[in-house]
Amino acid sequence: MTTHVRIVGVGLIGASLGIALSDNGFRVSLEDPSPTAVRLARDLRAGEIADEVTDEVTGAPDVVVVAAPPDVAAKAVVAALGRWPDAVVTDVASVKEAVLVDVLDSGADSSRYVGSHPMAGRERSGTAAARGDLFDGRAWVVVPHEGSTDAAIKRVREIATAVGSAVRIMPAHEHDEAVAAVSHVPQLAASIVAACLRELPESAVGLAGQGLRDVTRIAASDPRLWTQILAGNAPAVRDVLRQVRDQVDDVVAALDALVDAGGEGSLGTLSRVLEAGNLGHARIPGKHGAAPAAYEVVSVIVPDEPGSLGRLFGDMGHAGINLEDLHLEHGLGQAVGVAELSVVPASVEPLRAELTRLGWRLHD
Amino acid sequence: MTTHVRIVGVGLIGASLGIALSDNGFRVSLEDPSPTAVRLARDLRAGEIADEVTDEVTGAPDVVVVAAPPDVAAKAVVAALGRWPDAVVTDVASVKEAVLVDVLDSGADSSRYVGSHPMAGRERSGTAAARGDLFDGRAWVVVPHEGSTDAAIKRVREIATAVGSAVRIMPAHEHDEAVAAVSHVPQLAASIVAACLRELPESAVGLAGQGLRDVTRIAASDPRLWTQILAGNAPAVRDVLRQVRDQVDDVVAALDALVDAGGEGSLGTLSRVLEAGNLGHARIPGKHGAAPAAYEVVSVIVPDEPGSLGRLFGDMGHAGINLEDLHLEHGLGQAVGVAELSVVPASVEPLRAELTRLGWRLHD
User: Do both A44 and A150 map to the same domain?
Assistant: First the structure.
C-alpha cells in the first residue's frame, strides 16, 4: 500500500522533500500557512494540496513531516500527534533537544514522535529554491527518544532512505553538540567574516578571490531562520564558540607581540593555529560520508595528446592495480598536466615500477 | 621582439605563471633552489631551465618575477636588481609593504622595482599543482612606489594582462589593508573553525555538510607559507581580527544571556550579526570582478520537456528584453524547475505581461 505523507510547511526543506518523495512513489499532501507557497510547491510537483476534501479521499496520513520554522516546530508536532491519532510524526528542525522537551512536556502521545534532521540545506531558502535531489547522498539524522516505538523509528528511516539519505541514529543532545561544531559555529564564522567587509572601500572588496567566496557563501543565509537555530542550541553553540574565541585571542596576542615587541614565540602560535586547522580539516569525510582513507599518491605527467589518459588507465589496469581516487591537475587549454593517482600504500611501488617501464614520466 | 621573463621560484605561482606566459609567446627561463621542482616545471612546459649556458644564449631577462616565499622575497628582489642592471623586477608576495621597505632600504636601484600580487591561489601548493589558467579572470594588484618608473610599471602590467588578469593599481599599505580583510582573516577563520573539529567524535564529523566544507576548504592551506603571510601583515590583520573578536564576544554574551538568564535582547544581537553578514556578503563582486547590479528577478516555471528552456529564451528575445543573469533551480532528474530571470527593473512588468500572454506560469 502506498505510504501517505503529510508535509506541514513547504519552504526549502518541505517542498524539496515533497518532490523527492513524490518521485519515489509516495503519496504526498501539502499544507502551509501561505497559500502562494503551497500552490508553488504543488506546481513543482511536491504533492497535492491538502484540504478537507482530499482528506476525505486520501484518509489520514501514515506519516506527518513537520517542516515548519524551528520556533514553531514543537507546537506543530504536538498538533499533528493530536489530529491524527495513528500517524507517526517527525520534524526536520536543526535543533532537536528543545523540540523534544516541548513535545514530552505537552502530554501528547509522544511514542509516535521521532525527531529528524536532514543535513541538507542551501544558502537560499523558500519554496522556489526546492529541488528533489537535495537529500541525495546527505546524512539524515534520526533522533528517537526513550519512548519512541520501533515502528515509528522504522517509518522515519523509510522516508530518509527513500530520498537517498544515509541514516544516522543519534540521541538529541549528541546531535545538538555535533551540529554546533559542524554547522552552527561555521555559520557564525562565515557571517562574522563577511560582516568585516561592510565598511571596506570598493577597491578592497574588488580583490575578493575564491577563498573569500567559499568562506562566506553561507553568510547569505536567512537571518531570521538562523537566529532561531542559534538560540535553540545556545548552550552547545556557546561551548564551541568559546573555543573559537580562545583561539582568536591567542592569534591577536601573537600579532600584538609581532607589532609592538620582538614577537618572540609569535610565529609558533600562528603556525600552531594553522596546523590545527589542517588537522581538523582532514577529519571531514568525503562527499558521500566515506571516511578519508590513507591512500598514497603517485603523480604522472600526462601529455595532452588524444587518448593519453585512456592509455594511462589501460596501463594501470594491465598492472592489476586498483585506482582509489584520481585528481587531474590540468588547466583549461594547458598542454601538459599531472595526474595524481591514489592507491593503497602496498600498490605504490609496483605501480611506479610498471608505469616507468611503460615509459611514463613520474614525479614525486 | 620576444620578451624574456626570468621566474625565480617555481612553486604553485611561479610554475603557473611560466605555463601561462609560455602559452602566450613569452620566452620564460626558470630557476629554483630545488632541482626537482625546476625539472618538474620544465616538464609542465613552464619554460626552459636557466643556467649559465642558456643565459649566454638568451641574454639577460627583460623582466624578473620573484615567486619565492614571502620571507625571502625582498632579498631575492634586491639580488635580481643587482644581477641584471637593465631588468624590471617584480615579486608576487601576498604582503607588499614589508617587501617594499626592505627593497628601498637596500640601496639597490629600486626605480626598476614594482610589486605585484596576483589574487590567485589554491588550497594546494607546490609545482605539481600548477596550472596555466590560474590567473585567468583574477585580479592582479600592481603596486608601484613613488620611485617606480613608468616603463617598469608598464612591463609588469603587460605580464599581468598577458595571463588574463585584470590589473588593479594600488599603493602597498592600501593593498595590505585590503588583503587583511578579504584574504588573511578569512584564512584564519577557516583554520580556527576547522581546528574545532579535531576533538569531535567520529559520528559528529560524519554530519559535515557542504556549508562546513566551503567554510573550511582553505584550512587545508600550507601552514608555513601562511605563517609568513600573517606575520608579514601583522598590523593590518590584527585590526580586522579585533573586529572579529568583538563580534564573537557579542555573540558569546548573547548566548550566555540566553542560557543563564532570560536572554533579553539576545535574539537582537544574533540577528544583527547574521544581517551584517548578509550585507558584507552582498558586497563581494561577481566572479569576473563586475559589481553586483540591482537587477530584479522574474521566476518562471519550466517544465522538463525537450526544448522548453530554449522556447523560453526565444520568447524573451522576441519581447526585446535583455537577460542580465539566469539562475536555474532544477535538481538532477527533477521533472519541473524554476528559472529565475534577472532583468533591469524597468523590464520586469513588460516581461511578466509578455510571458503570461504566451502561457508561461510565473511565480513571485
Answer: yes
CA distance A354 to chain B (A): 20
Residue B324 pLDDT > 80: no
Kindly state whether residues A130 and A266 are assigned to the same domain: no
CATH number at A99 reads 3.40.50.720
Interface membership of A197 toward B (CB under 8 Å): yes
Rounded Cα gap, residues B226 and A267, in angstroms: 10
- Give mean pLDDT, residues B167-193: 97
Residue B287, domain member (yes or no): no
Indicate if A158 and A185 belong to the same structural domain: no
Number of CB pairs, chain A paired with chain B, less than 8 A apart: 435
Residue A333: pLDDT band (50, 70, 90) is very low
Instruction: Give residue A122's pLDDT.
Output: 67
Those of residues 125-164 in A touching chain B at CB distance below 8 A are 128-134, 136, 138-139, 141
Higher-scoring residue by pLDDT: B135, A325: B135
Q: Determine the distance in angstroms separating the CA of A66 from the nearest CA of chain B, rounded to an integer.
A: 21
Indicate the SS3 state at residue B167. strand
pLDDT higher than 70, residue B293: no
Q: Could you tell me if A275 and A300 lie in one domain?
A: no
B263–A255 C-beta distance less than 8 A: no
For chain B, say whether A261 makes contact (Cβ under 8 Å).
no
More confident residue, A36 or A350: A36
Instruction: Label residues B290-321 b or e (16+ Cβ within 10 Å = b).
Output: eeeeebeebbbbbeeeeeebeebeebbeeeeb
Extended beta strands in chain A, E state: 4-8, 27-31, 48-49, 63-66, 88-91, 115-118, 139-143, 166-169, 296-303, 325-329, 336-343, 362-363
Tally the domains of chain B. Answer: 3
A159 in the same domain as A114: yes
Which set of grid coordinates corresponds to residue A179? 551540529
* pLDDT tens, residue by residue, B74-86: 999 999 999 999 9
| Alpha-carbon gap, residue A18 to A9, rounded angstroms | 10
Report yes or no: B224 at the A interface, CB cutoff 8 Å.
yes
Q: Point out the domain boundary residue: A282, A314, A339.
A: A282
Average pLDDT over residues A163-177: 95
* Confidence category of residue A81, pLDDT binned at 50, 70, 90: very high
For residue B280, give the nearest of A136, A196, A224 by CB distance: A196
Query: How close A250 comes to chain B (CA, Å)?
Result: 11
pLDDT in tens, B218-232: 998 888 889 999 999
Does residue B291 fall inside a structural domain? no
Domain-embedded: residue A356: yes
Instruction: Identify the helix (H) or strand (E) that includes residue B68.
Output: none
A window 237-256, beta carbon within 8 A of B: 237-238, 240-245, 247-249, 251-252, 255-256
- Specify whether A24 is located in the same domain as A146: yes
Select from B132, B273, B299 the Cβ nearest to the Cβ of A334: B132
What is the model's pLDDT at position A291? 41
Asked if residue B184 and residue B212 are part of one domain, the reply reads yes
Q: Which domain holds residue A65?
A: 4-170
